[in-house]
Amino acid sequence: MEFKKFKRLRANYEGFIETAERDIHGDKAIKQTRSVWFDRETIEKLLADTDSKKGGIKIYFGQYDQDTLPEIEDTELRKEMDGRLTVILAASNENKDPEEETQIVNGGWFCPPHCG
User: I need a surface site. Which of 3, 82, 91, 112 has the fewest CB within 10 A?
Assistant: First the structure.
């Protein structure tokens, strides 16, 4: 992918999500998720559960609510995650949906606040 397209796609998303947050929540709009970073060990562990030729990572989009907030020690940050977008990584063979909890991972480092 051309870096120029990468930057344009991100700018399109950021413009859209800021407008949507303001339209939906008005002055209570939250700083929405810009990216989620997962470490190599997490990705390799998922890939180890897949076929070496037909396997891969399937990415699902989600949104936190009070019942699904991430397990993080910083309670203030945890509260701020309510309403934030997230991604769920799943070990997958031939684009199939996961069937076991060991095949799915949520978490990672969220931006904001952990932007690099």
Answer: 3
SS3 104: strand
Q: Supply the DSSP string of 48-89, one letter for each residue.
A: HTS-TTTEEEEEEEEE--TTT----S-HHHHHHTTT-EEEEE
Q: What is the DSSP letter of 31?
A: -
Cis peptide, bond prior to residue 113, ω within 30 of zero: yes
Residue with tokens 């209570």: 28
pLDDT digits (tens, 9 = 90+) for 35-44: 999 999 999 9
What's at 92, amino acid-wise?
A: S
pTM as predicted: 0.86
Neighbour tally for 13: CB within 10 Å: 13
Structural domain spans, the chain:
1-30, 32-111
